[in-house]
Amino acid sequence: MTVAMDASWRNWLQGNLARGCSVESVVESMVRGGFDKDVASAAVRAVLAGEAPDSSSYEYDTCPVSPDRIIHAHDREIYSVLRVGRPQLILFGNVLSAEECDQVIELSEGKLQRSTIVDPETGHAETIRNRSSEGTYFTLSENPLIDRLDRRISALMNWPLENGEGLQILRYGVGGEYRPHFDYFPPDQPGHAAHLVRGGQRTATLLVYLNDVERGGETVFPEADISISPRKGNAVYFRYFNNFGQLDPVTKHAGAPVLAGEKWIMTKWMRRYPYSG
Ligand code: PD2
Ligand code: ZN
Question: What does the pLDDT read at residue 127?
Fold first, then answer.
């Protein structure tokens, strides 16, 4: 559906979404203002989809994460070990204790399912070969441990708790890998608009290693020639959506095949707008 909308409505919409108003509430206001409900929903989607990238000139603006070497994140002192400028990437140590890693694994073990990936054509979740792993997720603050970790990660990423998706857990066996991809929703893929309706574009990822992998399982950024070895309790942060609404293609990354042992990771994806609540 193409939507005819004058500039003042568009500005109003962009402003409200940027302030964190829910999609439902802005659609309701538009309906009260005389819009047809389908037209209003399509207009919101169009504004969200308008987060168009101009990747050739991605501007590395100030990262929200504290530049300090030791960051007090909610209840824990976390150490930055390595910082990269392009892409914006930080390796952290001491994000979770060994006990917390074990507890998250234990809580996840019983409810693992074969991982799905979003089909770019339809926007539906599909089980495909690109991601040979099993996974599960926790809703935001699902239990006291997850609540503490959600709050710690939000403080570390310096991004609102309610903009975060629920923590996702993945387990890879030998041969398991995650082929190269972007964590953001590429705007040239037809299914992407459906993902932006709730929370808008993803802005940054924190990937936490929950165990030491015997061999393989590195997280690699092929465009930047970076390879990160999994280490229990460490985490890698990377940011791909700047304050100008551009997306950074250099954050393309992959999980290399596990060669021996198993690999457990926990992922937090942050959104531009509130995702939950
Ligand atoms: O397991 C990994 O190293 C990995 C690699 C790429 C995880 C993700 N992406 C992800 O969870 O998005
Ligand atoms: Zn990823």
Answer: 47
The span from the CA of 64 to the CA of 259, in Å, is 35
The verdict on the CB of residue 265 being under 6 Å from ligand 1 is yes
pLDDT in tens, 37-85: 665 666 666 666 554 444 468 999 999 999 999 999 999 999 999 999 9
User: Which residue's CA is the closest to the ligand 1 atom numbered 9?
Assistant: 254
Å from CA of 164 to ligand 2 middle: 15
CB neighbours (10 Å) of residue 107? 16
Tell me if 207 CB under 6 Å of ligand 1.
Answer: yes
pTM: 0.79
Q: Rounded to the nearest whole angstrom, what is the distance from the C-alpha of residue 13 to the centroid of ligand 2?
A: 30
For residues 190-228, b (16+ Cβ closer than 10 Å) or e, as one string?
eebbebbebbbbbbbbbbbbbbbbeebbbbbbeebebeb
| Ligand 1 touching residue 276 (CB < 6 A) | no
pLDDT in tens, 180-222: 999 999 999 888 899 999 999 999 999 999 999 999 999 999 9
- For residue range 94-111, what is the model confidence (pLDDT) as tens digits? 999 999 999 999 999 999
Atom of ligand 1 nearest to the CA of 218: 3
Whose CA is closest to 211, among 172, 247, 243? 172
